[in-house]
Design goal:
TIM Barrel, two-stranded antiparallel sheet, 8-stranded parallel beta sheet
Length: 283
């Protein structure tokens, strides 16, 4: 495993385990236990995933010391305000059974997210949050946040995979010292990514699968990846990307797969924004 040093000096694993769309408590708890047993130390959850308690139970049962783990969770749109964030941070800590979080992210830049970020900055200064950041911030939004807040976000978690590579976004993150992290590194299985001929051909040179090639491609771009699987053998395969490197030619071939837009979500669509605001995770 390789680590990246965030802009505040905190070390973050370059590969972690995501639990999006694993709402069943028993399945989520077992998946996190399997992930930790497979060598994962970064666990990524969110208030909106409705599985923080299951993640917390797995952490407690894992036998791995808290200091070895890097736990991330996220603030939901419903709580995007100064007071809302203060309460939400404590709620997540309680559900996870933790005294502090390694990384706390604004899940969507909607509502009063600047007010929420101010509360996160306070919690950071108090040592409750080791690092603070954002998700789903396109370049114009990230620039506005960085020019507004006191503490530059440590991480921006966005959609990053061969079909949506976001090179302009990566360039801006580098300018501000914000670490990119990929959600959906497998494009949610779209475009036949697991059998794609370009990725298959590259993988055959190294005895690796297209999935392993995709993860390796992103980490070589300096991107943290958080692949999800509930199958332990796939977790182990996803972790097995640290014994080979892609050549410049390989990277160039993958760069030509970029469609230049997302086919998973449209953050610019008013209907999508309305839907996120209407999604309530508590009374």
């Amino acid at each position: 495993m390789e680590y990246v040093t965030l802009n505040n000096g905190v070390k973050m694993p370059m590969e972690g385990f995501g639990v999006f769309q694993v709402p069943d408590p028993a399945q989520c708890e077992q998946a996190v236990l399997d992930a930790i047993a497979s060598g994962y130390r970064l666990i990524d959850t969110a208030a909106a995933y409705m599985n923080e308690e299951a993640v917390g139970k797995a952490i407690a049962k894992s036998g791995v010391s808290r200091e070895e783990l890097f736990i991330t969770t996220k603030l939901w749109v419903q709580d995007a305000s100064y007071e809302g964030a203060k309460k939400a941070i404590q709620t997540s800590l309680d559900k996870l059974g933790l005294d502090y979080l390694d990384l706390y992210l604004i899940h969507q830049p909607m509502g009063d997210y600047i007010g929420a970020y101010r509360a996160m900055e306070e919690a950071y200064r108090e040592g409750i949050l080791r690092a603070v950041g954002v998700c789903n911030c396109y370049p114009h939004v990230l620039a506005d946040i960085c020019e507004t807040v006191d503490i530059i976000p440590a991480v921006n978690q966005v959609e990053l995979h061969p079909f949506f590579q976001q090179e302009d976004a990566l360039a801006l993150m580098k300018e501000y010292g914000v670490q990119p992290e990929a959600w959906g590194p497998f494009a949610e299985g779209n475009h036949g990514i697991f059998t794609h001929p370009v990725l298959t051909e590259i993988g055959e040179k190294y005895g690796k699968s297209p999935a392993q090639v995709v993860l390796r491609w992103n980490v070589q771009r300096g991107v943290v990846v958080i692949p999800k699987s509930v199958h332990k053998n796939r977790m182990e395969q996803n972790m097995d990307i640290w014994d080979f490197s892609l050549t410049e030619e390989d990277m160039k071939k993958i760069s030509q797969m970029d469609l230049g837009h997302s086919e998973i979500v449209d953050h610019y669509a008013p209907a999508f924004v309305k839907m996120l605001h209407s999604m309530k995770i508590h009374n």
